[in-house]
Amino acid sequence: MKRITLYVVLLLFTGCRSQETVINEIDLNVTVERLDRELYTIVQDSAYQQLQGLQEKYGTFFDTFNGQVLCIGNSRNPLYPELLVRFMQHDVVRSAYEKTAEVFPDLTALNEELTGAFKHVKFYFPSLPTPRVIAYVSGFNTAIMLTDEVIGVGLDRFLGNDYELYSSLGYARYLQYNMRPERIAPECVRAWLLGAYPEPAGQAGTLLAMLLYEGKLLYALEKCFPGQPLERLTGFTPEQLQWCRNNEQEMWKYLVEQQLLYNANFMAIQKFTGDAPFTPDFTQESPGKAVNFVGSCIVKNYMERTGCSLEDLMQQQDALQLLKEARYNP
């Protein structure tokens, strides 16, 4: 018997009030913290004694950030201020800070969008905590960093797909397309769900399991960003998304006829699910990861037929059972 989750209970007690009204009334606020500005100010003013305050404010996240993103070690190291200055005075990093200040002088719009999105997360996944969101400049190293309590956002990885330095740094054009501000909120929510519901251990090694897992994540994003264009959530261009819609049946037919659904070969799976300018087995008009669209279509069928909660969906780890209950037939 399916568990009655909080959002069902809320609807029972709110009568004719709409679901969105209930969600909007959830007491929750997300404000992105600007570690990028604080570090830049400290270095500019040579106020290194203030670094201890950052350690206290950001806790273990600060250690992870310094060790895994900046790669300069623990902030308690006596050499840390010198290493930090060297990092931030590097020409590329300095350019990143200057561009970040230009593109993101204010994060009010992002705060509002994240607040709305995480109200939906709380509605559909009431047991999940709401994360702190901390912005940083990584020297183009890390776009999203996840800890148990924090989502870190490398603002320098979302400066706009026309930012000239991305090409100089070797980012392919298909990757640059999603290095834009409007991708931050969906990437944050996706990362939080990835952390809460990691790939199922048993069947994660097949292409079917991977495309259904990605389909579940995309379905959840659609619920958390109602009314948003699907291309914004998928990262596909409008033309690529239309290609997926036009070729949904052909993609599924190909996967079935070539007996690829239960393929557990890592390289074979990566060919369909890894970042790429297009899917090699399809046309060059297709996006990389095109099969994720098929996965989301299967998941939608499953949800319509079972009526289960979004929380139950994410906890469903049996890919074969999900496919069977979906009765997918494009």
In short:
The chain is mainly α and 330 residues long. Helices cover 56% and strands 5% of the residues. The protein is built from 18 helices and four strands.
Describe this structure in words.
- With 330 residues, the chain is mainly alpha-helical.
- It contains 18 helices and 4 strands.
- A 4-stranded mixed sheet has the order 1-2-4-3, with helices on both faces.
- Helix 10 (184-196) packs across helix 11, helix 11 (207-224) crosses helix 16 and helix 11 (207-224) packs across helix 18 (319-326).
- The model is unreliable at 1-15 (pLDDT under 50).
Topology:
Layout: H1 6-14, H2 19-24, E1 33-34, H3 35-44, H4 51-69, H5 80-89, H6 91-103, H7 108-124, E2 132-136, E3 144-146, E4 150-154, H8 164-168, H9 173-176, H10 184-196, H11 207-224, H12 230-234, H13 238-246, H14 248-257, H15 266-273, H16 291-306, H17 310-315, H18 319-326
Parallel strand pairs: 1-2, 2-4
Antiparallel strand pairs: 3-4
Features:
330 residues; mainly alpha; four-stranded mixed β-sheet; 18 helices; 4 strands; 56% helix; 5% strand; globular
Q: What's the total number of strands?
A: 4
In DSSP terms (H or I, runs of 4 or more residues), the helix count works out at 18
- Give average pLDDT, whole number: 91
Oligomer: single chain
Shape label: globular
Unreliably modeled segments: 1-15
